[in-house]
Alanine--tRNA ligase (Nitrososphaera viennensis), 917 residues
Amino acid sequence: MGKKELAAMFSQNPDRYYKVALFDQMGFQRRQCNLCGKHFWTLAADRQSCPDHENYGFIGRPPTSKRLDYVSAWKETEKFFAKNGHEIVRRYPVVCRWRDDLYFTIASIVDFQRVMNSQVVFELPANPLVVPQMCLRFNDIENVGLSGRHYTGFCMIGQTCNADAPGGYWKDRCIELDYGMLTRGLGIKPEEVTFVEDVWMGAGAFGYSLEYFVRGLELGNAVFTEFEGDENNYRVMPNKIIDMGAGLERFSWVTMGTPTSYDCCFGPVVDKMLDMTGTDRNAEFLSNYFGAVASKLETTGGNVKELKAILAREMGLSYDQLARMVAPHEAVYTVADHVRTLLFAISDGALPSNVGGGYNLRVILRRALSILERLNWNNVKLEDVADIQIDYLGQMYPELEEHRQDVRTILGLESGRYTGSRERMNGIVASLKKAKKSSGELEVSDLIRMYESDGITPDFLVEQGVISSVPSTFYTKLAELHTSVAGGGTEKAKPVRGLEGLPATELLYYEDESIREFDAKVLKVVDNGKYVVLDRTAFYPRGGGQEPDTGEISGAKVVEVTKQADIVVHRIEDGGKLLHEGQAVKGIVNGRRRDMVTKHHTATHVINSSARNNLGSWVWQNSAFKEESYGRLDITHHSALSKEEVQKIEQTANIAVRKNLPVDIRFYDRGDAEQKYSFRIYQGGVVPSNNVRIVNIDNWDIEACGGTHVRRTGEIGLIKIVKSERIQDGVVRLEFVAGEAAVNYMQSQETQLSTIAQALGSSREKVLESFTKAMDDAESAKKKLRIMLRTVAETMAKSVSEQAKNLGDVKLYSTYDEELDEDYHIAVGEKAIEIDPSLVYVALVAKGAGMRVIVFAGEKASKRARAGAIARQVSAKLGGSGGGDDRFGQGGGRLKEKIKEALLSAEEMVVAAKKAS
């Protein structure tokens, strides 16, 4: 049974599911649509079809005398529900940190959904409540700005209520309130309101719903979530939930009657952008055109291009004439929407990038930039548009002001990157124009590949004349490629079997972290003594990036500790003969290891906040690892860190250490913790329990964390950041040592410095001067070597061409070299493709702990396979990254065990390119 069958089942018993007191009180009649069969409730005696088949009748003639712009519509809504006993809750972040299955908050009800044991539970901070929740969705990007009503970011007014908790109510009161909001709050006449029966399913629960419409426009949907499970196996929920979601944009639009919802919802943003761009305002034409698009879009299956062609004929214009007339307005609306979405996302800690949810943000950012570029609107800067948005929306969302500069920084940086890539993009476009004469129009898959590999938007290709228009499915398909949440690639340890029925382990390390010895009883011995479960333990299990304790249990060596649900499992090395069920045992934790891991864990918190304070509010913990000898923290940041930035982070962290700040650890109800400390507590990811352990370092850093920590930061002693690298787009890794490990590192550095000074025949005080001279001498020797290489390169290049593998009209020479360096292979490779234009030259050169990838493609060969693309693929096989242009590519990686596979991938790529051609 699916949604259709559920709807039929609910409709067969309308008095049970859909009829409410208001319908009897006001005289609403239930009718069945003569076009689609849906059931609806109306006061209009002559209405025979449901609003799904009704054109928008409010554009140019709103059904109310009230005129409410975006902010005013919210204030009216807020006033109405507050007066009727609802708590007005501040919006939750658009970055959905409390769910590990979502990147972004896609609906207001998501604010109050938590996943526990694969089941969704509802946790409301007040009952009943209303929230003006900004939501992000990227499934309709093509229509944004064009349809008059589609957005990537929108405000869903969430009216939420636990019907079975104090203050709760059910459907009679809900519909009474929603009807009152429309008629008294917005001033709409009763006969204008139509309720349509529907069904809602999702997130392990479902229920029946009543959508409400005015003049063809759906304003909201009241869902009565009564059942949990799925449609084939369900039961009534112990706490029924009302989930009413209404579009604030639509509340404003229906009262203003503007040609598009953008005109009233973006307020001064649209007006100022029209002024900045000198765009003509033809109110009558725009009203006719956009009113028709908004009303009739569904008749063409959501295809704006097809509808535009129809409207052009009706208006007596050619398609191109109409497109030119509306393009500036579509551009203003699109940029306004995309910037607003970016504003909220960046303010809430997200960054445009090439991975995860950041991918969708970069897609719309580059789309906006490409549109501005196509129309030559050089005076319009995204960061300036964001400022206008903040000035307007600050009345509703005052928290945006504190992120104004951060948003400007990120938008300016991304805009600069886009501009900086223009030269490379122009070169690719030139090649495409030549190829187009023989290959024809590019497919959507080609456009996606070009965006993925080179960041080229189809809007840019339209501007350059490579394609005639942006395919209607491009942005949707692109977004779909990056909607799944990260984490699926992590291989999890197999659970230990045979633990069924055991009680939860008493966790002594939470009662007192100083415990190193304890008495316990063996509850279970599994797998011939390999695994042991005790009734209580002080051994900390692996979790949250913290490595586990080791030690002994009555002489049996503990080498690994894990946690399955509420049970701690100890892996024993050769301990099967020593321990048995029911035995009283003594556990001894390796104190030195625990202390060092604990200091690294607390140092992780300190460094994380130090990085955020020095870099920007967009810094979040991406992942972390804490071991006995070192720690690793991955943070979200837009660029690689400079030496000066790393030093500032380290200095600030050590100031926190020297202040000897107290580390307070307490358990809170999850909702209380979120409201008290905000969603910043989720640095380490989602907490799968409603009992949250908060680690508060004197308000310096506050996180939900289950790890072990020092009592005061002074116990850490010293923090030293030993390495910083950008490991992927938008993520920077900091490796560090703390406490005794930091002292050991400093002593090792001191020893190495003395050794270097001795080797240079210098004192430590003058080692830099001596080193500089040695480097100058080395550079001089290098220059002589390059001259010699140029002399022998031609001879070696001829040999390469003779040894190359013949792949038809393309040759491939590939090698792994541990002796000759990259200078050699660059000289020989460059000469080889000059001698033989059909040659592809691939060299993997050993360099330190990793490898350097060098790729050349001759003029003839590059038409089959680009050097940059080969370098990228080979580097990826080696666990790294690479790139380049048609002729030359480079990169690198560290997985030396993948050398053969990497070289084979180069050959496969050349062969595949030959077949494709």
In short: Confidence is low (pLDDT under 50) at residues 486-491. The chain is about 40% helix and 25% strand. The first strand starts at residue 29 and ends at 32. Residues 767-803 form the longest helix (37 residues).
